[in-house]
Structure formats: C-alpha cells, structure tokens
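Tip: read the tokens left to right.
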C-alpha cells in the first residue's frame, strides 16, 4: 500500500500506471521475434505463428495458441498457404488470413472449423494487407489486394463481400489504413502520402484532418479508438494528431520528436475520461502522448505487442504481460500523495483504527463535519474495483465497511455487488485460467458472456461455481453449462469426459473442487439420460466407468428396473443375482419372493458362484420351513434368519422342530448348544436345561451353563454344573457362584500362581484372614517351583 503510487507517471492532469498481469508461462527462445502475433481483447487468448528456426524446404511454421498467462492451449504445424494476418472473432475463434484471400477459422484448441474466401480478385492479385475488426454486426475482415482495391466483409458469419471503390492515384498498398464504423456503416480510412480518403460502399471521398501540422508530408500510421469515436494520425515529421473519427474535431497535436514510423499505435482511453491519449510503440520505446506537450516514455527490453482494450492497453512480451492504463479518478483521489479526498481520509481513519489510535476518531470527525462520509465509502468501493492486487482490494473494502458502520441509510447493494464482482474477477484472473479482465471490461462484457468464454475454454467447474455463486437462473447458468459440456463430450469419442475435470479452479475454488465434482457428474449423467434414447445412453455408459458407477447408484435408489436392464446389457450375472436377492426382501407374498430367489440362483449358477447359489437355495428352503410351521403352529417365523428361527422355536418349546432344523441345515453343534442354552435360561426352564446337559457331552463345556444361570440370578442351579467344569475352568466357575473356598481349593490343587492371585484379589482381609494365609503360603510354594 505504501508504494502503490510508485509506478504512476503524470501526463497533464492525469496519471498513468503499468501493472504486471503475469509472468508468461510460455517458453519462447527468441521471444516474439519473427512471430506473427494476434491477441484477443477482453483478456482473450494469444495466437503466435512462429517461423521455423532453421529455414528449409521441409520446415513449416508453427501455429500456437496461449492463454493470456502463457499457458499453451494448442500447437500444430501450419500446413496451408502463407499467412498474412491473424485475428480473433468476438467469440474467440482464430482467423488465419492467407495471401490468396482464404480465411481459415480455428477454435481455441486448434480444431479447424471452416473456411471462406475473400473473392476471386484476391486469388488473382494476391493480398497485400488485411485487418480483422469488430463492429455491432459481428467480426469483419478487410483486405487490400495487389490491384490496390479494398474488399470488406462486415460479418463473417453472414458473409457478404463488398468491393469498395477505387482510390485515385493509389499504387500498391496505402501508407496506412484503418476500418471505421460510423452511422451504422463500415468504412475504410486510408492515407496515400499526405492525402486521406474515406471509402464507403459507393464513393471515395478525400478528407482533411482539421489542424494537421503543415510540416507533415505523409501520414505513416493511424489508429482508431476501441469505441471507433476517436482517430490518431502519425506523420513523417513525428507529429501525432488526435481528433474525432469523423475528422470534424481536433483534440490535440503532439510533437513526439521521433520521426521513425512506429511499429504499432493504439488508443489508451478510459471510458468517461476527458484525457485523450495514444500509446506508440517502436522497437525499444513505448511512448504515451496526450493533450499536453509532455509524454511518458517506457523502455522496452524485449519484442512486444500492444493490444487495445476498452480501458487501457495490454503489452504482451516474451517474458511478461502488462496493462497500461490511465489511473482511474477514484484511485487518484484516494492514493495521491497528500490527498484530502473523502476516500483518502476514510482509508487513513481505518488504518489508525487498526492501530487502536485516537487519530481514527479525528479523521472520522473531519469527514462527518464535511458531510461526505457516504462519498468516502463510495470512493473506496469504486477504487477497489479498479485494483488488481487482492490485498489492496481488501484494504479498500474494509475501509468502506468501516465507514458504513457510521451511516444509517447507506444502501448495501454497491458494496455487496463489488465484493461479488471481485471474487469472480480474481478467480478468472488466476494464472491457471488466464483471463485478466478489469472491472470495467467485466461490466461491459456481462456475466453471461464471461460464462460463455469459460465454457468455450472447457472450464466447466469454474463456470458452474460462478453461476451458483452469483445465483444465476438455472436455465441461464448451470443447465446451460452442462448442456455445452455434454455436446463437447460426445464430440470427443473415447474421451472420459467425467474424468476431465482437472484441478482448474484456484484458491478457495480449488478446495471446493473435490466436493462439487461428484455433484457435477451426477447432474451431467441425469442430463444425458433425459436427452438421449435409452439404447444409446446405455452404450455410452459402458465406456464411461465413472458415469456408469454414478448412474448405478442413482438407479439403486430411484429406478430398480433400469438397474436390472443395465446388468442384463452387460451380462453381469453376479450383479443380477444380487439384484434379485435384494428385490426378494421387498416382496410381501412368499411365492413372489421365492420366484425372485430362484432367479437369483439361476444367475449365480451362470456366474459360477457356487457358494452364493447354495446360500440362496438354503434361504428358499428356510422360507418354506417357516411357512409350514406358521401354518401348523401359528408362529410368526416367516422372514427370520436361521438363528432367529431356532431361538424362537426353542423359547416356544418346539424342541422337536428345532432339532429338525438343526439337522436339516447342518447348524454347527457349538452354535446350536449355545442357542438352546440361552433360550432355556431366558424362560427359566431349569429342568429342561438339566436334561439337556445330561443328554450328551457338551461341545461348549459346562462353564457356559454356570454363567447363564448366574446371569439369570440362579446360583443354586449354577452349582449343579460346577463339578462338570474342566479343571482349567474350576476356579472361574467357583468364583462365578461366589464360592471362595472352592475356588481356593481348585487353585491350590492346580498350583497355578496366576489363579491363586486371582482368588486372593477376591478375599477380604477382615473376613477371610485364614484363607488369605493359606493362599499366600500356596503362592510362595508355587513361585519357588
């Protein structure tokens, strides 16, 4: 913030600044030398036609397309005819104009779209020069042929060639020329030596700029402003004339003291500015001239190209990309040294407030006394929009927020709108996106056009995030983006478009990427499902694993029948079997359930999954058994698991049926004994439990009998089984029923130090003193051995 004015240069009553937008990411050995360059306005892409480093009959030029940050978007050898001019359409399509008048159109990624010709005369006489221009009608192309005739196409999307009248005395190309749009007509302004002519559809009219220096013998360069309202002429005497494009008014004339014809000349005029200025470029010099006699000069250390913008000039070099512009009045008022403007005072007040200084109150009092606090807030908000550095933006917006606290009726909309605008702008300015829009350009372009540009660059996630952030209506925002995404995806066969969502969002958007990705993919699949016929949709999903997975998840919850069709199409018998099993659980009628399970068995057999087929057959067998018992005994068993069925039978005293189920389904002995034991304990059937224990040797031992009895608070019954417990479990059994003497006897007999210690931990020093002494002696004896 302290050095924010360090790069300001005064020119008359205005200041100009040069801001670095990017360090270019491209690797150009010789920079822009020997390159034909075209950069699209509004922070658009850059096209380079590079000549081969070692000229030979087989060497071809290389056409390369980059974002404004130097990120490569396309590169391919040029195999067509010699190119005279490159240019960009309003839709960011690249025009390559060949010397035979053929115009080839490519998209941002180097894909050929179409071509057209500028007429037969060009084929015969060749083309000398060409210009690409933008008008209210669209993108146009103007050329001058070897016969010194001009041909014009106002809108290449509705091609109508106009051959303009002949220029008297013109041989070859004019010394300079430009395209004008006036009174809803497109005209050509040209210079032949010191003479100026305007060509329209029917006539060639000589014109004279008012007040042009008499020292001029020839006009060597001209430039029309971005809005076509102003014209600049550079003469061989080094004078720069500036005036209206209709040549009725003169704004100023400056002696640049440089007589060499410039390489480029572009207007640098901010909307609503009263300061006319033109940027002139030579090999190593950049000069800014305005109304006053002074100029601003910048030294260029590399080959560069100027790109006219709505509110400034972009300067593209081999290593950096900069923006030259007049400093907006709001920024001048706030940051100019010793400024007493309301915004400057409010900014200082906020700085002092952050320092907890009393000076903050003094500044605020001064603003309030002048009744300009609202103006101060407005200036800070407006200035934030003109700044490129996020930290400077935040500082100004915090100052504005601070000032709003002392206003009772300040409308919040301008502040909120600016915060939203800057969040969007900072996202698209990021190096990975490479669209260095200014706030002025953004407002002129509109959000819809910005979304279109992001879509055209295939930055779909960022486009959708911006639509959602700005709450754009669905039909204008997310749905429209997804539609373009789908069209692009199906034009690229073999491309997994759902996996083509790389980490293109920057900053805070990057953290959202993993979260929103699945949402985008799901929306995309839904859109395609609605747009395509069923067969094509299924065939497409087969080649898209991510899409197929997402659609299966959707069908599991929404469209079960569609899921079955997917499995059938893929002959996925395993998944079909799983599908039938899951579907069977939703059927209330047993016959329908059995039918589905039989279908599952058939599919599992086709999948050669013997285990799943056998398990499903046993499930069918269990269901039939349950139905028979329900009919005979009135028990509600249908749908229970095997274990639940056994438990229900045992607790209902249907021991015979439980035994049959145990044998038929080969239930492991240990599991069955545990089930029967717990069921008998739960119903307090101690007599049946005793019979069960004596029926045969227990496969689970007898400690479980003791434990279930104790769990049911019946130590009397538990004591019956202690004698049957194995020696290894005697101590645990005696302790379970609270028999310390028995536990001690068993531990001493086994001479187990660990078991003796366990019994000791249960003894009380007051009531079990004798037992404690006996156990301690036994432990000492056991430890010695």
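Filled-in amino acids:
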């Amino acid at each position: 913030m302290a050095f924010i004015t360090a790069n300001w240069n005064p020119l008359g009553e205005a200041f100009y600044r040069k801001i670095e937008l990017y360090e270019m990411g491209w690797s150009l050995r010789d920079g822009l030398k020997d390159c034909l360059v075209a950069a699209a306005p509004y922070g658009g892409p850059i096209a380079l036609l590079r000549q081969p480093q070692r000229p030979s009959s087989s060497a071809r030029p290389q056409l390369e397309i980059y974002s404004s940050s130097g990120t490569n978007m396309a590169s391919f050898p040029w195999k067509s005819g010699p190119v005279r001019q490159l240019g960009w359409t309003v839709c960011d399509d690249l025009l390559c104009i060949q010397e035979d008048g053929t115009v080839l159109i490519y998209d941002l990624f180097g894909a050929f779209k179409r071509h057209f010709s500028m007429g037969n005369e060009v084929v015969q006489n060749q083309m000398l020069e060409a210009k690409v221009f933008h008008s209210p009608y669209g993108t146009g192309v103007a050329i001058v042929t070897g016969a010194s005739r001009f041909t014009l196409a106002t809108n290449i999307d509705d091609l109508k060639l106009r051959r303009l009248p002949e220029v008297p005395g013109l041989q070859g190309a004019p010394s300079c020329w430009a395209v004008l749009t006036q009174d809803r007509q497109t005209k050509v302004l040209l210079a032949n030596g010191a003479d100026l002519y305007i060509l329209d559809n029917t006539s060639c009219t000589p014109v004279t700029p008012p007040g042009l220096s008499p020292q001029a013998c020839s006009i060597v360069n001209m430039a029309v402003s971005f809005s076509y309202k102003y014209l600049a002429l550079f003469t061989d005497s080094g004078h720069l004339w500036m005036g209206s494009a209709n040549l009725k008014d003169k704004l100023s004339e400056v002696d640049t003291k440089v007589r060499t014809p410039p390489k480029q000349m572009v207007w640098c005029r901010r909307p609503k500015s009263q300061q006319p200025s033109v940027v002139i470029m030579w090999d190593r010099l950049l000069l800014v001239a305005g109304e006053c006699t002074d100029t601003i000069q910048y030294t260029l250390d590399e080959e560069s190209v100027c790109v006219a913008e709505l509110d400034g000039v972009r300067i593209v070099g081999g290593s950096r990309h900069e923006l030259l512009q007049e400093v907006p009045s709001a920024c001048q008022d706030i940051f100019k040294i010793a400024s007493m403007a309301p915004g400057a005072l409010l900014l200082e007040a906020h700085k002092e407030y952050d320092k907890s200084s009393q000076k903050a109150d003094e500044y605020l009092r001064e603003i309030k006394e002048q009744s300009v606090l609202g103006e101060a807030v407005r200036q800070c908000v407006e200035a934030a929009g003109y700044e490129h550095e996020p930290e400077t933006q935040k500082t100004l917006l915090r100052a504005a927020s601070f000032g709003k606290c002392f206003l009772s009726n300040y409308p919040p909309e301008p502040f909120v709108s600016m915060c939203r605008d800057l969040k969007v702008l900072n996202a698209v300015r990021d190096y990975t996106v490479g669209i260095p829009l200014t706030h002025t350009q953004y407002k002129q372009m509109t959000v819809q056009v910005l979304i279109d540009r992001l879509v055209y660059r295939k930055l779909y996630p960022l486009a959708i995030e911006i639509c959602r952030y700005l709450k754009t209506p669905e039909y204008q925002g997310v749905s429209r983006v997804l539609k373009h995404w789908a069209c692009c995806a199906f034009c690229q066969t073999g491309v997994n478009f759902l996996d083509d969502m790389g980490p293109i969002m920057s900053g805070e958007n990057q953290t959202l990427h993993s979260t929103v990705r699945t949402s985008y993919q799901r929306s995309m699949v839904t859109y395609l499902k609605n747009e395509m016929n069923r067969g094509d949709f299924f065939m497409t999903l087969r080649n898209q694993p991510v899409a197929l997975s997402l659609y299966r998840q959707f069908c599991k919850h929404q469209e079960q029948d569609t899921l079955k069709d997917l499995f059938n199409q893929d002959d996925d018998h395993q998944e079909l079997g799983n599908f039938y099993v899951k579907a069977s659980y939703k059927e209330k009628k047993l016959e329908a359930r059995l039918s589905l399970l039989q279908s599952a068995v058939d599919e599992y057999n086709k999948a050669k999954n013997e285990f799943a087929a056998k398990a499903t057959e046993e499930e069918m067998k269990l269901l039939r058994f349950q139905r028979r018992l329900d009919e005979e005994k009135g028990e509600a068993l249908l749908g229970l698991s095997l274990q639940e069925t056994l438990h229900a039978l045992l607790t209902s005293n249907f021991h015979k049926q439980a035994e049959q189920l145990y044998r038929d389904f080969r239930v492991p002995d240990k599991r069955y004994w545990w089930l029967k034991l717990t069921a008998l304990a739960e119903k307090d059937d101690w007599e049946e439990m005793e019979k069960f224990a004596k029926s045969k040797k227990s496969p689970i031992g007898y400690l479980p009998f003791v434990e279930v009895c104790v769990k049911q608070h019946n130590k009397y019954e538990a004591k019956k089984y202690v004698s049957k417990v194995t020696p290894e479990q005697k101590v645990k059994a005696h302790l379970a029923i609270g028999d310390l003497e028995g536990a001690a006897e068993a531990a001493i007999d086994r001479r187990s130090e660990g078991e003796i210690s366990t019994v000791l931990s249960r003894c009380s020093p007051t009531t079990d003193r004798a037992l404690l002494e006996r156990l301690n002696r036994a432990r000492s004896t056991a430890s010695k051995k």
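The two ends are 86 Å apart (CA to CA). The mean pLDDT is 86.
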